[in-house]
Amino acid sequence: MKKYLIILLTSLVLLPLNAQYKKREMRAAWIATVANIDWPSLRNLTSKQQKAEMIQMLDSLHALNFNAVVFQIRPTADAFYTSTLEPWSHWLTGKQGVKPNEFYDPLQFVIDEAHKRFIDVHVWLNPYRVTNSESLNVLSKDHFFYKNRNLFVKYGDKYYFDPGYDETREFLNNVVEDVVERYDIDAIHFDDYFYPYRVNNEEFPDNNSFKMNPRGFDLNQKDDWRRDNVNLVIAELQQTIKRIKPWVEFGISPFGVWRNNSIDPRGSATQAGVQNYDDLYADILKWLQEGTIDYVVPQLYWEIGKKVADYAVLAKWWSENSFGKNLYIGLYASQLGNKQANDAWRKGNELARQLNHNKQYSQIDGAVYFSAKGVMKNLQSLNDTLRKNHYKYPALTPVNRNIKGEESAEPQNLRVVKDDSEAYLLWDKVEEEGGCQISFYVVYAFKGKKVGDFNDPENIIARTIDNCVDIRQLNKKYHGYYTFVVTAINKYKHESIPTYSVTRKL
Fold first, then answer.
1. Distance CA 67, CA 118 (A)
2. In the chain, N or C terminus with fewer CB closer than 10 Å?
3. How far is the CA of 61 from the CAs of 190, 367, 390, in angstroms?
């Protein structure tokens, strides 16, 4: 199936392969850092221990044929990377503003190690949250909070940027611009936290910003004004990203219900107590329809058959309301086996049921698992299900349908070079122009003396950043005549046209 990271390829006409396996499919894991959900496991780990944990995680995901990670780099207006705009995160070192001992840049490390394993990196930023409690003691004295105090408000027991100020949007754009410019990332990613979830009996304290910057809205339209604040920053961020690196994607992972159909006939047949549009002021459908985001990952963290929010109902609804943009379903991997959850999550494997359910919708391009811990712990034998029934073969990440990009140039001069002790499949290195470099090469091997089906992932025998493959290694698995073809994948995820083949007996 031609259609996956996230972290997502050329014509994305989705045609059935063998009813199970897809050549192009998003298979991503969230690596959450807040409260040390996934990484680092403790805040007092040395740099060496942090690196070892990350490598173990990436190795495990690679072994399961995951092709993207969603890595949280800005949980509370702080940084998991070298930044002149925001301080080092206390989730990384135990104290905000303190860089890692035995200095290293965690984001650069993750990019390098993930790309070695052909795993895309979607960097996950929280746009407005500043603290996870009412205490300001965690903030570094150099935090932007102390440089421009009027941009921030306390709501409930946390502090936030006020989205109503132009300066808030400007600062967020500066943060994103800095990351996109300096790091070889594959996507910028936000989750469901725009305006915060409602606090009982408390209104978000944005009267000052509304009075200063109403932009034509009156007091009865304050909800519309809040939505407009978010709409503006989403559209500006898309422009910021594409101005620097047009192949970098911009994705959102919203709460799973846009609106209930009891409120809006366009909404889903649900009875959710929270709605993106009304409570978080996030009009996801507008962004999808206008193309100000490139992909969506609705968090469908409920079981099939749940009365107020049925997974099956929502999977169908999102497949019908993605407006042609890439759609990956957010799955609740960490809920598997939870003793406090209902029977669906404790008996059998609810995610296996959901993955099977998704197969009936060609609009669904893959899945994103929250969090990586569910995979690392193999909850409810999830990994065995993925390995045997869903992710048996590697998959290329999908081309993003919202981004225009040129086809990759094809490898030339494919040949076999050998002597008495060595044999290599070799080709000339592809040189791309315009800053969009080759990400890696894909090597196909077809049984016999003819080229076979390029859509079947079983025929992909290698991905490599080098312009050669050691045929001696292939001799351990393949026997008889095989026909080899090599293609190139560029930063836009586009695959080159295969030009010709070579046949060799193994």
1. 6
2. C
3. 22, 14, 14
β partners of residue 382? none
DSSP state of 85: S
Residue 60: half-sphere exposure toward Cβ, Cα within 13 Å? 18
Per-residue pLDDT tens over the stretch 398-416: 999 999 988 899 999 999 9
Q: Which CATH superfamily is domain 26-390 in?
A: Glycosidases (3.20.20.80)
Instruction: Using alpha carbons, select from 321, 356, 223, 233 the residue that is nearest to residue 279.
Output: 223
Closest by CA to 138, choosing from 95, 99, 101, is 95
∠ CA 296-299-303, rounded to 5°: 135
pLDDT in tens, 112-124: 999 999 999 999 9
Distance CA 396, CA 148 (A): 44
- Chain position carrying tokens 């073809």: 485
- pLDDT (tens digit, 9 = 90+) per residue, 331-364? 999 999 999 999 999 988 899 999 999 999 999 9
* d(C-alpha 237, C-alpha 444), whole Å: 38
Longest CA pairwise span in the chain (Å): 82
Buried b (16+ CB within 10 A) or exposed e, 128-157: bbbbeeeeeebbbeebbbeeeeebbbebee
Dihedral angle computed from the Cα positions of residues 107, 109, 113 and 118, in that order, rounded to the nearest 10 degrees: 30
- Residue 161: enclosing H or E segment and its boundaries? strand 158-161
Q: Which residues pair with 296 in a beta bridge?
A: 252, 327
Domain ranges of the chain: 26-390, 412-505
Sole residue written with tokens 């065995």 = 384
Q: How many whole angstroms separate alpha carbon 141 and alpha carbon 147?
A: 9
Residue type, 260: N
Verify cis geometry, omega within 30 degrees of 0, for the bond prior to 100. no
Angle between helices 106-116 and 47-63 (to 10 degrees): 30
What single DSSP character describes residue 88? B
Residues 273-294, mean pLDDT to the nearest whole number = 98
- pLDDT score of 2: 34
Which architecture characterizes domain 412-505 according to CATH?
Sandwich (2.60)
